[in-house]
Each structure stands twice: as C-alpha cells, then as structure tokens.
Amino acid sequence: MNAERLHAIALAIQSDLQKTGVLQKLTQLLNALRSQVQQPNQPQHQQQVSQAHTDILNSLKNSSADEFSPTWQQVVHEIGLENFLGSRLSTQIDSIFKENQITPASALQQLEHLKEQVTNASNAIDAAVQGLNGLSIGSEKLRPGECEVGVLIPRLLVENRLDKFSDELKQLTQIFQCFAEVTGSHVSDFKVRTISSSDLSVFLEAGPKICAFIASAIDCIVKAYKGLLEIRKSRAELKKAGVPEETLAPLDEHASKVMNLEIDKFVENVQRQFLKSDDVRTNELTVQLKYSMKKIANRIDRGLSIEVRMIEGGDHDDDKLKADNENYYSAIQDAKPSMQFIKAEGDPILALPESPDVAGGPNNS
C-alpha cells in the first residue's frame, strides 16, 4: 500500500468509528452489564443490558466498513483492524452474549477485553491520521465525477514471479482494450494512479462510461460465481474424503457450463445495446468480449478481485453529459455489492477457455 491510500483508509475508519459511536455504546453496554452482575435480582438492569446490546448491534449495521472495496478490505486486514469494525465486531459481541447467557460475569470480562482492543484500534488510527497529517502526506481521494478501477492480483496466482505478474498485466490490458472498444472508449484512457507491491494491486484512472461497463461485467460474473460456491465447497469436502479427480470432474464441467451461460446472456445483451449489427467488426468483438469475461471469471475463481469506484457529482455544463454520468454512477453503485472479497473453500472449479485455441485457466492463457 502507499501512504496516501493508507491515509484515506485511516480517515474512513476514523469516520466510521465516530459515526457508529461504537466506543460510547460499548461503554453503555458494559455499565449496564456490570450493574446486572452486581445486582442480579434487579430486572431493570437486565432490560438495560438488552437495550444497550440492541443499540450497538443496530449502530454497527450502519457501518461503512462493510462496504469498503476489496483492496481497502485487504489493507484493513493487513493492519489488523478487520475484527473491530462493522459486522465482524457485531458478530463478536453477539457471540459473547450467546455463549454466556447464564454467566453474565464471564460475558462482562470478555466484553471488557473487547472494548480494550477496540479502544487501542481507535487510538492507533487517530495516531496514524495525526502522524500522516504532521508529515504533510496527503489523502488519496477521488474528486467528484472521477473513477478508478482497482485490480488485486493474489501473489499465488503469479507465484510471486515478476514474469508471471507481467503476463497478468498484459492479460488485463487485453481485457480492458476489448471493453474500451465495446464502449467506444480508448485503452489509452486507462492511466496508472498507483501500484501497491505489498498485495500486488494496480489502480487505474478511467472514464465513467467504461468504468460502468466494467462494473456491470464484474457484477454478472460474481453473481453467477456466488451460486457456485456451494459446489466448490462440496467438491473440496469430497476431495478430502478421497474421491478421485475423475469422479469430481463433472462438478467442474457443470460449474464452467453455468458460468458460460451467464456470460453468453450478458454478451448478447451488450451486443444489442452497444454493437451495430451491420459492423464488420461486431462478430469479432463479440467473441473477444466473451473470452475477456471468461478470463476474468477464471481469475476471480483463483482469488483476483476487480473493483470500480466513482465519486458522484462533478462540474458538467452539458445536461446530457451530466445525466449520463449520473447513470454511470448508479450502475457502479448497483454493482458495488458484487465487488467484494470472495472467500471460497477448496480448489478452483472453473477452467473456461480463454481463446478459441487454448484451454481454460490463467496459466494456459
């Protein structure tokens, strides 16, 4: 990660902690629980605990941390704060109560420890923001109307090798070049904003139109892939139980077939919307788009993440341009839930062909 991006993430975490008021609500919950432990026969204390418990869980439902992009989530994980924000913190609190329903004293002890951890996390973020400000390190933010495409490439996918990482960047260039042509954009519109070496992340500037198209394509692929996660989990369990690969092969074939069908539907819709039927380039571009999406699906199956961010607004004198950008922003926001980390169990299950003459999988492209 770079310092400017870390600064932006630290500010977002700081804002989230303030918005949810989690430290204050944890204090209220602890005070109520402490009163219950000290005076167990007073029913009002139990009611206060119940209310404080509900309040903090409801507040954490509004946490923006759960909506951080995949690369931001990766940074939060690296700095060790993922368990003290949003739904993860909510799950910890809820688990403490469920596991200690008849032992409030034990719940109190665990909650006191959790509050200490959250307090330390909050203090660390405050110190980081203060330090970065003191060093005059800016916060990497998009301006209204700006867009960014982020790609997180797992080190295992490229075996930590520079040549394989370079090959993946070439594949991404080909994919974006295809998307650019479909939308009437230019691949030269993609300009490198930042590159992170810790998690092999690349962030690119691009126009709203192509960003909205990329977001829609990712949305299609991820929605289809989430439907295959149970198959992948079952395959892993069967493999662990000693079922031979030849017996498991039909599961992989079914998964690839399902993904192929969803990609075909998406491309058919794109063909109707963007491509002219009388254009001699249409058939070739349609084929390229299908294989570009198959490349993405294979890589998502292997841990790659693609995210798209856009900040609403911007100065537009042209009413049509303003309306178009509002539509692009809406499309990106609609796809946002799909642009999250997918924690899949077991081995990859997709082996979609990435060209007419080559078998599937990133290593064969």
Q: What report would you give on this structure?
A:
With 365 residues, the protein is an alpha+beta fold. The chain has 2 domains: 3-134, Four Helix Bundle (Hemerythrin (Met), subunit A) (Up-down Bundle), CATH 1.20.120; 147-364, no CATH class. It has 12 helices and 6 strands. Strands 2-3-1-4 form a 4-stranded antiparallel β-sheet. A two-stranded antiparallel sheet has the order 5-6. The longest helix has 31 residues, at 104-134. It is globular.
Q: What is the count of helical runs?
A: 12
Rg is 24 Å
Let me know the average pLDDT: 89
Kindly report how far apart the N and C termini lie: 28 Å
Find the count of extended strands (DSSP E, 2+ residues).
6
What is the ordering of alpha helices and beta strands?
HHHHHHEHEEHHHHEHEE
- Determine the strand fraction and express it as a percent band: 5-15%
Major sheet description: 4 strands, antiparallel
* Regions with little confidence, pLDDT below 50 for 5+ residues: none
> What best-fitting shape do the alpha-carbon axes yield?
globular
Structural class: alpha+beta
Q: What strand line-up does the widest sheet have?
A: 2-3-1-4
Helical percentage: 55-70%
Number of domains: 2
Quick structural overview:
The protein is built from 12 helices and 6 strands. The chain is of the alpha+beta class and 365 residues long. It has 2 domains: 3-134, Four Helix Bundle (Hemerythrin (Met), subunit A) (Up-down Bundle); 147-364, no CATH class.
